[in-house]
Amino acid sequence: MRPRIVPVLTKLRFSNQFIANLPADSNLQNETRLVKNACYSFVNPIRATKPKLAAYSEDLANLLQFSTNDCASYDFLQLFAGNVVSPKSKPYAMCYGGHQFGQWAGQLGDGRAITLGELPGLDNTLYSLQLKGAGKTPYSRTADGLAVLRSSLREFVCSEAMYHLRVPTTRALTLILTGDHVVRDMLYDGNPQLEPGAVVCRVSPTFVRFGNFEILAAQRNTNILGQLADFVIENHFPEIKTKDRKLRYVELFEQVVDRTALLMSEWYRVGFVHGVMNTDNMSITGLTIDYGPYGWIEDFDLEWTPNTTDASTKRYRFGQQNAVAHWNLLQLANALYPLIEDVKLLETALHQYPDIYRNYHQSMLVKKLGLTDLNQVNSEFIEELEQCLSLTETDMTLFYRCLSNPKLLSAEFDGERVSLLREAFYEPDNINESVKLSLEQWLGKLVNIVNEGQVDPIRREQSMNNVNPLYVPRNYLAQLVIDEVEKGNFDMLHEWMGVLQNPYTEQQGKANFAKKRPEWAKTRVGCSMLSCSS
Ligand code: AMP
Ligand code: MG
Q1: Closest CA to 116 of 199, 232, 186
Q2: What is the CA(290)–ligand 2 centre distance, in A?
Q3: Cα–Cα distance for residue pair 258/252, rounded to 1 Å
Q4: Does residue 183's CB lie within 6 angstroms of at least one atom of ligand 1?
């Protein structure tokens, strides 16, 4: 049954480009099944018993032309809790497949995400609005279609934080507590608990993933595969002007290679580890998508993964995200092959990935280190940097902030530059002489390169602080905020959201949000260890 219509919502101009242009599943039953010859299935969200707005993104609400009054209204809450459906909206769940942890997993699909339709932003972009955690869909398989507060809060905060960090990402408009309880075995150790449920409204120009193409290729449905590729090109890749159909698809692939390489270097820049880089979690437009057991690098460690489900092989560890993206792009190339039927063209594009990534990565590091020229960093220098960061437990975020200190460049600190990095070390008083020496040597090298370029130290500091954030959504802070919200206190969540809107600017009285991980958080579940249970 279609939920009741609230009159105020009739003003919302939902459009439905995705469903207007692509084939729907003809079965309207909401029951688990394999869906063939379709890109999505119609399905309505379920009711939340007692919805409560925990937070919303003012910045995004403004972009989507919701006034402050709109956001405070009963209708707004009901709409984004999934309790009403706007008259112009035709909610649906997408069909996609994917490679999970290196294996083809067959059909997956939106098991708990329901797209309401698209709304125009002030920037003239059409944004899809999607509720995550609003009940089962035909793609839910054996799961419940719901989401718990802790994971919803983590997705809500991190999406908006990434946006303000200028990392390509899907966004989040609302975090709503449903008032219902959800059963989860957080550590998969036979201890299921009742947890508060929540719904997040995610927002993005598109939620299409590599997996949307893979499932159609697996079903040998070249016709719909072509329709999906055409739709994606027309709506999300305006830069593709080529008329020849096959070459358009090749260009699409080249663009995805490029955007994905950029995304990987941006994740590295801010120290983000996705945790579940399965191909169903790879956006076709190069956005960060599906925030699950992600984590932020605190002490620099290329081997680190926050995802306990991936603990044995660490497939998705920090230092391997770039290589995994390349592998995932290979799966996308395979999926697009039936449209192109030319291995060489796809291979050529795929083989360009390492060079494209290296380029992005090096120019990103040039900026992070306050240098000016791409020639100033080669792979040997980067390797030495990464070795330095691993010699003693070093907070990546604070390390780069310290590196911008103008004093570092002064001869006065020759041989004593390590003291300027004190704040970044987890055990500054326990650094032995040989580690100190290696650090001094590398810092001396860096300073020589900087000084050769005759850079103004103050300008260098300003430009570095514009690419090296001070405030990132640290893992332990997320857990502290979750603890507060679970007790019914939303103040810290709102304060944190405010701080994360300006991640590059030091803010008065907000030092607590920039502090390195406290000792207790090193081993606490939810801080450095997360499972896929959400
Ligand atoms: P993820 O690991 O979050 O990327 O999810 C992988 C697949 O499992 C996707 O198809 C999700 O929609 C589905 N899924 C995850 N959690 C749930 C849930 N609680 N209910 C239904 N489907 C889910
Ligand atoms: Mg997913």
Answers
A1: 199
A2: 5
A3: 10
A4: no
